[in-house]
Structures are given as C-alpha cells and as structure tokens.
Write a structure and sequence with these properties.
The chain has 2 helices and 5 strands. The strands form 2 sheets. A 3-stranded antiparallel beta sheet has the order 1-2-3, with no helix packed on it. A two-stranded antiparallel ribbon has the order 4-5. Helix 1 crosses helix 2. By secondary structure, the chain is mainly alpha-helical. It has 2 domains: 76 residues, Irregular (MYOD Basic-Helix-Loop-Helix Domain, subunit B), CATH 4.10.280.10; 66 residues, no CATH class. It is elongated and about 100 Å long. Belongs to the MAX family.
C-alpha cells in the first residue's frame, strides 16, 4: 500500500458526498415545485403563501368538494336520462294512439279536435278573430282515462288550456 491510496479514498468519499448532496437538493426542489403547483391548483390558495400542511389540508378539502359536486352533477344527469326515457315512452304512446280525444301526461292535457288538428295544453294563445263559433263550441263530455287508471267525465273548451292533476304511481 502506498501513501496515495488513502487520499484517493478520501477524494472518492468527498465526491460521493457531493453527488449525494446534489441528488438530495434536486429531490427537495422537485418536492417544493410540486407543492407550489398543488397550491396554485387549489382555488383558495392560488398565489398565497401557505405551509405544506395547509396546502395538503386545503387540497384535500377541495378534492372532497369536487367529488360531492361531481356526484351531484351525476345524479342530475341520471335524473335527466330517466326523464328522457319517460318522455320517449310518452312519445311512443302518443304515436300509437293518435285518435284518443284526450291524453293526459304529467298534468298536461292534449285535446283532439274532431274538425282539425290536436290542440295542445302548450298553446296558450288563441286567435279569437279567426275562430268561428263552431270551433269555439264545447267538446261533448267524455270519459277521460287518467294516468292513475281512474276515469273522469268532463268537457273542455277548445280555446282553453287544461291542466289536470295526475297522480304519479
């Protein structure tokens, strides 16, 4: 063994230590940058100074808030899909039975005019100037089938809008 060998080991230990310190500094910088990115991604913390614990707590709160919001939106979407299916079924039902004098759905009535096209409960305006007295006459009483299976007798004026209560089952 020569006297030069211990110096080589010392230099290599110093190089190892310096290399390790550089890697550790790089790792800490990466963590710091990640916390800064997380802080800027949370609306309540954008650009503010905050400790790492505050950043993590606020990020957790924000994630939980967004999950609740997403669940609420998904529930709304599911409800609208169910409503679309019901409306599609009602359209098919209306298309199958075009001769029915009255179709009741969700409280709205559709009257069939024997002398012309159907009159919808959505038609809120009436052209009284162009209506003849025959068209303004009353439809004779009929047995009306309701959405709950019961039937009612009644009459309706062609120029009026009818809103009937429907029991949902």
């Amino acid at each position: 063994m020569s006297d030069d060998e211990p110096d080589v080991e010392i230099e290599s230990d110093a190089e190892k230590r310096a290399h390790h310190n550089a890697l550790e500094r790089k790792r800490r910088d990466h963590i710091k940058d990640s916390f800064n990115s997380l802080r800027d991604a949370v609306p309540n913390l954008e650009g503010e100074k905050a400790s790492r614990a505050q950043i993590l707590n606020k990020a957790t709160e924000y994630i939980e808030f967004m999950r609740r919001k997403n669940n609420s939106h998904q529930s709304d979407i599911d409800g609208l899909k169910r409503q679309n299916l019901q409306l599609d079924q009602q359209i098919r039902q209306l298309e199958k039975s075009p001769g029915d004098p009255l179709v009741v759905s969700n409280g709205l009535a559709l009257l069939s005019n024997p002398k012309g096209p159907a009159i919808s409960a959505f038609d809120e305006e009436s052209d009284s100037d162009s209506d003849s007295s025959e068209e303004r006459s009353h439809i004779p009483p009929k047995r009306l089938k309701m959405g709950d299976g019961s039937s009612h007798e009644g009459s309706a004026s062609i120029s009026s809008v009818i809103k009937l209560p429907v029991n949902k089952t």
